[in-house]
Amino acid sequence: MSQFGFHTEGLELVQQFHDQVKGRTFLITGPSKGGIGAETAISLAHGHPSTLILLGRSLDRIQPTIDTILSIDSSITTKFVPIDLSSLSSVRSAASMILNDPTISHIDVMINNAAIMATPYSLTPDGIESQLGANHIGHFLLTNLLMPKLLLTSSSPTAAALPHQQKRIINVSSVANLAGGGIRFHDPNYTLHPEEYTPFNAYGQSKTASILFTIALNNRLAGKAARSWSLNPGSIATSLGRTTTPEMRQDALTAVFGKGATEFPARKTLQQGCATTLRAALDPSLDDDKDPDAVYLNDCQVTTDPHWIDPRALDKASAEKLWALSEELVGEKFVW
Asked: In this record, what's one Pfam family (predicted)?
């Protein structure tokens, strides 16, 4: 739908695809106040979903989002689930809470939104490079553990899926996938060569992983009335960039767009920033795209343009190799 683009706002998409929102259950990671996760949840509230499951580090950071949701529609069931995506034990605990909650019969759309960016080098408690751990591995484990409820449909006749409603798993990536140089399969955690670590290259690796995860998911979701998409939300002023300095931003510009680049893409508002996520989550026409490389959106449009996505992030062999590496890092194999 060519009318969607840079200036499209989240509320426009919720209004247009209201039948993909009303009465359905959405799960969103990282919906802290002032971020695109919160803006995504708040936009969805205008479409009157049945349930919004909000996962974050602390209730204090998520409560403003819950308050806004309930001010829009007090009938929406909002559930907060504590999670630290950099901790595998925390992810397992969060997944267990959701799986064992009898009031959550199923999940229609899962939006893996939470991220950290350009942090100093560190390892998670499980020995995984922190950005790869929080941005990809935590979501990889959470998604696989929740698959029993993601693949279930509602048992309520009043909330039964319409023929054009598919389950969706959305992995929020970034144009920074261009900075990662692909996945460092020989040394993903920089433990062999910590001197090679740079904050934005590691961030780029984690966001490349989000796209490759999407490809591997789609390989496994074939025939299951479910689809995964990844996306670049754009450049938005949020707390995600709180650790960056002007010097780091220039390094990022060079890492992403090459030497000689002088300007970042134009800034988006929060409403514009959540729009690509919402098109990926809601638009049923995306299911008509049979291109096997159709997994990534930029400015609300499916693209394989190398200006926005590194061709290495579309490599199917790398996607399967990353799946195997991710299983190794979490210590569990998944078949569903």
From this structure: adh_short
